[in-house]
Amino acid sequence: RPGKPTHNVMVIRMEIAMTDKSVLEWVWETTGVGAFGPKKVQEGYKPQWRWSTSFHGAKRVARLFYPYAITKKEKLKKIVDHYEVE
Length: 86
Fold this sequence. Notes:
alpha+beta, 3-stranded antiparallel sheet
């Protein structure tokens, strides 16, 4: 947008996509936040499902998963710290 000001904004979003629908249904029901539904895939590929949440829903899930995380522990900590400042 020429001539319009830019803003530095952080969009916090979590997403899980996979072909096992039952796992994502469990995540959705257990966390109580986010959206769950089919993901568009190219013809000939297996159907995929997606669970996603953002902002304060992501904060809630990050706090829930943080003690058990191994590979994504640092990213979850960033989400928790971002909302602790407010």
